[in-house]
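Q: What would this chain look like folded?
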Amino acid sequence: QVQLVESGGGLVQPGGSLNLSCVASGFDFTKAAMSWYRQAPGEERDFVAGSFHAGASTNCARYVKSQITITRDKANNTVYLQMSGLKAEGTALYYCNEQDYRDRHYWGQGTQVTVSS
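A: My prediction, written as structure tokens:
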């Protein structure tokens, strides 16, 4: 059974940094396509960053104005999202996502990020 557990969200001031973590289980993490999405109140869920081809390639959404980096730790089945220079529009529920070889998507419960002074 696929499980994705996010953590690391919280309240941060504009310009601040946060590191999100997602611990994965129930599938072959080393080969999985792992991504982060975010959803603000009343908005659609949007792609933020992804780690593909067993981590050999990454992609970040151009609309994200904060500095973001996605990395994965294969030894601990964990994918990270490092964010800095956060802005108010970065306030959202951040979700970890796994897309398997059949294009099925699995989601965690999300971790809340609030950017406010």
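The mean pLDDT is 93.
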